[in-house]
Write a structure and sequence with these properties.
Bound molecules: zinc ion
Low-confidence stretches: none
Radius of gyration: 16 Å
Helix content: 25-40%
Number of helices: 7
């Protein structure tokens, strides 16, 4: 079985509406996704959406507390740890579970990051859906260009990523018709029998 994973960064927005719409889409297609959340965006209102994601078989992962570029901003080890730990606490409070993976904001990493964050780092095939000028057609092409067994697609679930729902809605049936099965990121590693070691950026699990 060919396996792939959809991952979504930068949620949840204030009300959780963007993530909720994405969950509607995933539910419609009967597939799960992995959501890498920004800790300081989690609140009482969108907690229900996060719990809905869990109920639908999606998983919740860590995307830092305040979305800094750790390398460019020269974050200290303590600051990097804080970015990870505060988000971990916020997610645990809502889900009752610890995350398994970390996605560094801007995929900005250095040795200090690898030492300070006790999780494997996920990159993924960048679908470039953060570029507002790209049409849904262009983004769909960019997304599908990275298709291969074991790939993790890097998508976004923020208020400014307006074309992403359409792209995902169109991509899923195409990928299904090519024989791909959708799983969460942790499930992808388990099903492939691959140990997600730390100290590298994962994009394809094979
Ligand atoms: Zn991000």
């Amino acid at each position: 079985m060919k396996l792939i994973s959809l991952s979504f960064d930068d949620g949840p927005n204030l009300t959780g509406s963007v993530m909720n719409d994405m969950l509607d889409l995933l539910e419609k297609h009967g597939i799960p996704g992995s959501f890498f959340l920004i800790g300081n965006k989690i609140n009482e209102q969108n907690a229900a959406v996060i719990r809905r994601a869990m109920a639908l078989g999606c998983d919740i992962e860590n995307h830092s507390w305040s979305h800094p570029d750790a390398v460019k901003e020269g974050l200290s080890r303590a600051q990097i740890e804080n970015e990870f730990l505060r988000t971990e606490e916020a997610i645990f409070k809502v889900t009752g579970r610890h995350t398994e993976f970390y996605r560094p904001p801007y995929i900005s990493v250095n040795d200090l990051m690898y030492q300070a964050v006790p999780r494997p780092f996920i990159c993924g095939h960048a679908c470039q859906d953060w570029i507002a000028e790209y049409s849904a057609d262009t983004l769909l092409e960019k997304m599908l260009s990275g298709t291969q067994d074991g790939v993790i697609y890097l998508l976004h679930c923020g208020e400014s990523n307006l074309n992403t729902p359409e792209v995902v809605d169109r991509a899923i049936p195409i990928l299904k018709s090519q024989g791909y099965d959708f799983v969460t990121v942790p499930e992808l590693f388990r099903r492939k029998g691959v140990q997600p070691i730390q100290g590298k950026l994962w994009t394809v699990v094979e």
